[in-house]
Structures are given as structure tokens and as C-alpha cells.
Amino acid sequence: MSVRRADLRKIKKFWDEQAAKFEGSAKASMPDELLHDLEIEHVIARIQEGSKVLDVGCANGYTTLRLARSKKITIKGVDYSEAMIKMANEELRRWGPDVKKTVSFDVGDVLELQEDEASYDQLVCKRVLINLVAWENQKRALGNLHRVLKRGGTLLLSEASKQGWENMNRLRKAFYLEEIPMPWHNLYLDEEQLFAFAARLFETVEVLNFSSTYYVGSRIMQPLILKMFDPERQPDYDSEINRFFSLLPPYGDYGTQKLYVFAKK
Q1: Cα(241)–Cα(216) distance, rounded to whole angstroms?
Q2: Which end is more exposed in the chain, N or C (fewer Cβ atoms within 10 Å of the end residue's Cβ)?
């Protein structure tokens, strides 16, 4: 267990450094801004007007503020990185009074969530569980999310899937591209474990492979084209190829990132 705690501290330090490096930018929590925008777009579509929302693992508040601007909601963002929350509050000060009245930020850890029981209509949790080192921690986090959600409320869980990652790498291998490794600070969710455990707490409303088409374009087609015509050049998140594929509807199961929508039983 002590090794696991050391790992968690190391990961927290990484996110503190990301906050200092990128400040209010979307890149503080994800370097691929096009993918980040896709994620936010699908989350916004599932946020209900008038909801009381908790954004767990809000990072620098980039998504939280986008949600507040797009929907008439009250929303609180929490993150275990004090540096991220500092950036979030600095960003909030730049927004108008209407947003400031409906948004707040505070330090909070999904493994020790201090919010009141059954106090939120909807929860947003993006790329948080994958930073928790072990499945035991991921289960604990899901239990905490269940506790603070109202009965019938929805959890919008955007996380990296081990199965989607494996499918993407199998497709890369078919085109003689090297495997993309799992980042050192991540443990992607095993969907078999996730659904078996979540079934005790939630009804599964929807599973959206929103990144699948985009990953085919950005992680397979772009590097393949560069390999053929410009092998010295590295793939670029801001590529026009990526932009084109970001506009296409999702198809298949080749994307690492998925949106799981759960309703509390």
C-alpha cells in the first residue's frame, strides 16, 4: 500500500507541474485539444438545464467553465491539485458576474470526497479514475461518486478504456505502426471490471465511443501518411488531418477515450 501512496503522490506532483506549465489552457489536463473539445461537446449535450453539478477532477476549471457558459446550472469543481484549483479560481475571476454566481472551485480528492450524501443531480468525472494507480482505488472512487449523487442522477464518466486502447493498437499494428504505450501515470479502465462493479450501484444509460473515428484519423492515418511521405516529421495534435476526423461521427471501437453514462439506482 505504501508503494501505491508513493505512486499517487508522484502523479499528483505531475499534475501540479502541468498546472504551472499550462495555467488556464485546455492543455493542462490533455495535450490533444481537439480530443478535449470532442469530449466536452458530448458532456455538454448530456448536462440538463437547472442541474446542480459536481465536476470531480476539474483540473484548472477549463471544462467546468465551459459547462457553466453553455447550460443554466450551478456547478462546483474539485481537484486534489491545489495548483490546479488556484488556476481555476484565477480563470473564474476573468469571467462575468453571471458565471461567477453559479461556479465555485475547491480542493477535493475523489478518494476522500467530502461532499454531502445525495447532494448533486449530475456528476462529471473526466480522466480521473485512470490516475488512481489501482483497481481498488478506482472502485473506491466509484463508490464515493455514487454516494454524493441523488437517486436517479447521472454520472458522466469520461475515461480511457483498456479495450479501446488495445483495439486501436491492433489497428496500428495492421498498418505496421508501433504500439502507443499507456502513459506512466495511467491505469486504463478494464470495461469488464467496470461494468461488473458499476452494476451494483448504477444503471448503464449509454456508452459512447466518441473518440473512435478521431483516433483512426489522428493515431493511425496521420502517422501512416507521415511515415510514407515525410518520415522525419512527428505527428501533430493540431494537424489538419486531425481536424477533419474530429468533424466525423464516431464509428467503431478504436478510441481509447469513452463516455460512460450511469444513473444511480
Answers
A1: 10
A2: N
> CB neighbours of 17 closer than 8 A, spacing ≥ 6?
none
What's the burial of 2, exposed, middle or buried (CB within 10 Å: 0-12/13-18/19+)? exposed
Q: What is the CATH number of the domain that holds 52?
A: 3.40.50.150
Supply 254's cell numbers: 478504436
> How many structural domains comprise the chain?
1
User: What pLDDT score does 3 carry?
Assistant: 52
> Which pLDDT score is estimated for 258?
98
| CA gap 149, 146 in Å, rounded | 5
Strands 52-56 and 202-208: unpaired
Separation of alpha carbons 48 and 53, rounded Å = 9
Q: Apex CA 68: angle with CA 111 and CA 244, to 5°?
A: 95
Q: What is the pLDDT of residues 163-214, one digit of tens each?
A: 999 999 999 999 999 999 999 999 999 999 999 999 999 999 999 999 999 9
At residue 2, the pLDDT reads: 43
Question: Which residue has 459512447 as its cell numbers?
Answer: 208
CA distances from 70 to 84, 105, 208 (A): 22, 18, 21
Query: Which domain does 41 fall in, by range?
Result: 2-264
Q: Tell me which residues of the chain have a pLDDT lower than 70.
A: 1-3
Spatial CA neighbour of 18 closest among 68, 76, 60, 55: 60
Nearest-10 crossing angle of helices 62-70, 33-44: 40
CA separation for the pair 22, 29 (Å, rounded): 9
Name the one residue in this structure whose C-alpha cell is 512527428: 234
pLDDT at residue 1, as a whole number: 41
What are 239's three cell numbers?
Answer: 494537424
